[in-house]
Specification:
Length: 314
C-alpha cells in the first residue's frame, strides 16, 4: 500500500484511496491528491499531444495513414484511447480540455449510438470511458447504451459488422474481445443494468468458459491475450479485465472462475505486486516496462480480488 500510495503518482494514489480503500471523494486526503492529477506527467503529456480542436492524431507505421480526427482509430494513441486514459488517470469533464475532447467525440456519434461499424470493442469501451468522465446521464450516451442492450447475440456475446460480413452473422461466433468491452460497459453502468436479459446472457457467456477458456476445448485459453496482465486496457482482452468486471458484477466467487484466479495469483511477486506482461508499444500513455511490477496492474488485480470477496491484504 505504501507503494500504491506514493505521492509521485497522484492518479494511482487517487484511485487507490477511492476505489480500493473506499475513501469519500470529499476526504481531505482525496481532495488534495486529486488536485495534483492535472499537473502529473502522464496527464501533461497526453494534453501536449492533443490537437487544439480536441482530438489526437496518430500515423499508422504500416500504412502511413494519419487518423484520429474522425471515428477511425490508430494504434492506441487516437482520441477514444486518450479519453480512456484520462478517465483512468482520474480526470473527468470538469477539466476543460477533457470536456472539449469528450464533447467533440460525442459529436461524431451516429444516430443509433454507434461510432464505427458497430464494433462493440469500440462502443462498449466508449460507454465505460464516458461514464468515468461524468457523462453517465447524458442523452447521447443513452443511445449507445440502447445499442449495447439490443446487440447481444444468441450465444451471449457480441460481434461487429466487420467480422459478421465474413460469413453469416447467425453462424459466426461472437468475438471475445468485443464481448469483453461490452461486459466492461455493463459493469460500469451499475446494478440497474445487471439484471437486463442481455447482460445476464453476456455474464453467462464468460462464466461458461471459465472466464478465459474455449467452450469446446476448456483446457485451452481463447487466445494469448486473455492469459496476460495487460495495461492500459484497449481492444484486446486481458486476464485482469475479465476477473475485475465479473467480480464487480458479483460473479467473482463462481467456481467456474477458479482456474482463472489461480492463473492471476501465479503472476504476483514476493511483495504482493503484480507484473505488467504486455503494454501497447504505440500507446500515448506509457505505464511502465513489461516484466516489472506495475501499479496499475496491481491496483486492478486487488480491486478484482476485493470485489470477489477473495483473500487480499490491503
Amino acid at each position: 500500500m505504501t507503494w500504491l500510495l506514493e505521492p509521485s503518482d497522484p492518479s494511482a494514489r487517487y484511485r487507490t484511496l477511492t476505489d480500493l480503500l473506499g475513501l469519500s471523494p470529499n476526504d481531505p486526503e482525496v481532495v488534495a491528491t486529486r488536485k495534483c492529477i492535472a499537473r502529473s506527467a502522464a496527464v501533461v503529456q497526453l494534453f501536449e499531444g492533443m490537437h487544439p480542436g480536441g482530438y489526437w492524431l496518430q500515423t499508422n507505421p504500416r500504412t502511413l495513414k494519419t487518423v484520429g480526427d474522425g471515428v477511425e482509430y490508430g494504434s492506441f494513441g487516437t482520441t477514444h484511447f486518450c479519453l480512456a486514459y484520462l478517465a483512468e488517470l482520474g480526470l473527468d469533464r470538469t477539466h476543460p480540455k477533457a470536456e472539449l475532447a469528450a464533447e467533440r467525440y460525442l459529436g461524431l456519434q451516429q444516430e443509433d449510438g454507434d461510432w464505427y461499424k458497430h464494433l462493440s470493442c469500440l462502443y462498449g469501451y466508449n460507454i465505460r470511458t464516458l461514464i468515468m468522465l461524468g457523462y453517465g446521464t447524458d442523452r447521447r450516451l443513452e443511445r449507445s447504451i440502447r445499442l449495447l442492450e439490443e446487440s447481444v447475440r444468441a450465444d451471449g456475446g457480441y460481434l461487429c459488422d466487420l467480422h459478421a460480413t465474413k460469413t453469416s452473422r447467425r453462424r459466426t461466433r461472437s468475438c471475445i474481445r468485443g464481448s469483453l468491452k461490452a461486459l466492461a460497459a455493463f459493469a460500469e453502468l451499475g446494478h440497474a443494468y445487471w439484471n437486463h436479459p442481455g447482460c445476464l446472457k453476456l455474464v453467462q457467456y464468460f462464466l461458461e468458459r471459465g472466464g478465459i477458456y474455449k467452450r469446446r476445448e476448456p483446457q485451452e485459453p481463447v487466445n494469448k491475450d486473455v492469459q496476460t496482465l495487460m495495461f492500459p486496457f484497449h481492444w484486446r482482452a486481458s486476464l485482469v479485465e475479465v476477473l475485475f468486471y465479473l467480480s464487480k458484477m458479483g460473479q467473482g466467487k463462481d467456481r467456474r472462475l477458479d482456474r482463472a484466479w489461480t492463473l492471476l495469483r501465479s503472476k504476483v511477486d514476493t511483495e504482493g505486486r503484480y507484473i505488467l506482461e504486455r503494454t501497447p508499444t504505440q500507446s500515448a500513455w506509457k505505464v511502465g516496462k513489461c516484466g516489472s511490477a506495475n501499479k496499475w496492474v496491481t491496483l486492478y488485480a486487488l480491486l478484482a480480488l476485493k470485489a470477489a470477496g477473495r483473500s487480499v491484504s490491503i
